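Collaborator request, handled under Task 6.
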Amino acid sequence: MHFGTLRVLNEDFVKPETGFGMHPHKNMEIITLILDGELEHTDSMGNKGVLRKNEVQVMSAGSGILHSEMNNHKNLPCHLLQIWVIPYKENVQPRYDQMKFTEEDFKGKWKKVAGSFESDAPLKIYSYASVYFGSWESGSHAQFLKENMDNGLYAFVVKGSAKINGTDLKQGDAYATMDEPVLDINFAGDSKILLFEVGRI
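Structure tokens returned to the collaborator:
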């Protein structure tokens, strides 16, 4: 919580036929990544749809929005990551977008899924933050070099285990650094990593 522009990273498990009823947000960029299952989104802008595995949703709460997130499946739980990042522009008109990715999109590489309007990210947010997701097989090696040396890096182990810059991490652990320019990662098991490059505030 509160690492540069990264405000919150929640890992949620939503039981069948439960969820989060209609509730408000304002002046926050909200990114949701579905890891398993499905989640129905409804908001005050009139958007309604179901997010499924490997789909990413972005929402600019801006001047104010109401939304709900419900797992309407009768049997399957939903496993998701929800990220809040602090915007560089407040009171914008609320907006919503989503995109479907595949396992192949993430295999053996860093796939940028969301980033600022000035970036090459497929999903845009009003924030100095870039969000990447990747998956690697056991025994693999990866590096990440930050684009802006003033930024921070935050790597969250979604699945598996990894050694990042000499530190052993397991599922649910994170590695955060404001000063190191590179993450050097060795994967001890089949792993998935959510990675943020974030501006300072």
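The cover message to the collaborator said: "The mean pLDDT is 97. Residues 103-106 form the longest helix (4 residues). Please let us know whether this matches your experimental observations."
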